[in-house]
């Protein structure tokens, strides 16, 4: 299950900020990205892009 889907589910029952979700999951996101690209800066860029896209889709 995607972290964004789980966030949508939990947001019905309790108030959780997008920032709180990202802080909780950012290490996992980084590890996955790094496992693909094997470059720290590229992994950080990928995570940043994923967070931006997730936030934009969350606003809808």
Fold and architecture overview:
This protein is mostly helical and 60 residues long. It has one domain. The protein contains 3 helices and no strands. Helix 2 (18-37) runs antiparallel to helix 3. The longest helix is centred in the middle third of the chain and has 20 residues, at 18-37. It is globular. This is DNA-directed RNA polymerase specialized sigma24 family protein.
Structural class: mainly alpha
Mean pLDDT, nearest integer? 82
N/C terminus separation: 19 Å
Q: Uncertain runs with pLDDT below 50, 5 residues or more?
A: none
- Name the helix and strand elements from N-terminus to C-terminus, one letter apiece: HHH
User: What share of the residues lie within helices?
Assistant: over 70%
Question: What is the count of β-strands?
Answer: 0
The fraction of residues in strands falls at: under 5%
**Rg from Cα:** 12 Å
Characterize the largest beta sheet: strand count, sense, and whether it forms a barrel: none
**Shape from CA axes?**
globular
SS element count, helices: 3
Q: Tell me the domain tally.
A: 1
Protein name: DNA-directed RNA polymerase specialized sigma24 family protein
Keywords: DNA-directed RNA polymerase, Transcription
InterPro entries: RNA_pol_sigma70_r2 (IPR007627), RNA_pol_sigma_r2 (IPR013325)
Pfam family, one: Sigma70_r2
């Amino acid at each position: 299950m995607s972290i964004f889907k789980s966030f949508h589910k939990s947001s019905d029952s309790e108030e959780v900020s997008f920032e709180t979700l990202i802080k909780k999951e950012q290490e996992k996101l980084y590890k996955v990205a790094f496992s693909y690209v094997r470059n720290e800066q590229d992994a950080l860029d990928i995570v940043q892009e994923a967070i931006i896209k997730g936030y934009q889709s969350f606003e809808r």
